[in-house]
Amino acid sequence: MRTVLAAVALMALAACGSNDHDKTRQQPTAAATVAVAQNGADSMASQDPAAGEQARIDIPDSQSRPIMQAQVVLDRQGFGPGVIDGKMGISTENALQGFQEAHGLQVTGKLDPATQQALGQWNNIPATRVVKIPDDWGTRQYQKVPKEPEDQAKLQELGYESLDERLAERFHTTSEVLDQLNPNGQPAGMASPTLAQGGANTAQGNAKAAATAAASLTPAASSSNGPAQPGFHAGQLVRVPNVGADRIDPAVVEDKTWQATLASLGVGTDQPHVSKIVVDKSGGWLKGYDEAGKLVATFTVTTGSQHDPLPLGTWGITTISRNPHFNYNPDLFWDAGANDTKQRLPPGPNGPVGVVWIDLTKEHYGIHGTPEPQTIGRTQSHGCVRLTNWDAARLAQMIDTKTKVVFQA
Known about the structure:
By secondary structure, this protein is of the alpha+beta class. It contains ten helices and 18 strands. The protein has helices at 66-76, 90-102, 113-119, 149-152, 163-170, 175-181, 203-215, 219-222, 256-265, 389-398; strands at 4-9, 12-13, 17-18, 21-26, 128-132, 237-241, 276-280, 285-289, 295-300, 302-303, 313-315, 317-322, 326-328, 343-345, 356-360, 366-368, 385-386, 404-408. The strands form six sheets. It has a five-stranded mixed β-sheet, with helices on one face. Strands 10-17-16-15-12 form a five-stranded mixed β-sheet, covered by helices on one side. It has a two-stranded antiparallel sheet with strand order 1-4. It is globular and about 55 Å long.
């Protein structure tokens, strides 16, 4: 692995954790070692049709999935629906409200006729697409993340526990949704006799890849202490949400470890600049405004709890840490174990703050990612503002230390 010298601001969270600011020589996480295409993205990057043209679809989906299509478009436009699952929920409503506000529509949070018409300019973007899981994903040894901080500290990284989890995060969804899009282990709609006759990219080929992957599992990976056997495998064709806006310009990313992380999350480098962030406690959302005061991004967030309330007020940003380590201090956690001790945890998407830590001028507080994207907007945090890893990575591309942060009730 390459060794990258990165300035990692290690946070001091009153409830989120405890870290000191220092500079750390850091190894790229294995989760970020994806195959990188010429544009800096991975081999599963979106290939979108030109405006007014229809997308080429080799394997048509078995159904239209209109809500998922809207989620995909909203996600591409910077109005994150959280986990893309084809269902209306809090995160999708927040995304619709943001899109409506930005486009001068009545803010309803519903997929009403006016909003459908506004989204119609992207009707040539399908809800899903079929990709081939990179072959090198099969060389990764996934492992279960221990529960105790002391055991986590012994690892080199807090990476993905399975290929399924890695694939789900790459396409901003969950393993359960991927299972629904790939009944019996093959892409929905892949029922043509021609396609089913065999070959590397067919249902028969998928079955062969699955058998090969299962046979190659090491005893450690298949034991009770390791992760469950994955449902998806390297070299397999799978249907995924049609996540886009994932083009990466390597020239604008100095840290190649971070470039690989962006690729692993399907997040591109072409992002609007945000001069002000507003986090609303009651609405559970974060909005980003440009210099002209125009809304350019909306994400659903988790904000504080009864034990660790969101600190209302206006704050600044001191540092933006990518792939940060985490200094765990049990004295700052009301729910810490009685025998817990201070530990320095390695970086990784399954770390306590995910792939990003945005440190605020309010001591001990920040904005960060999470190892549990399905909980955003549904559970409480330890005082800080949590986003999905992909939304946190996108936000980190939008801001700088001059960005103002407002926490409101």
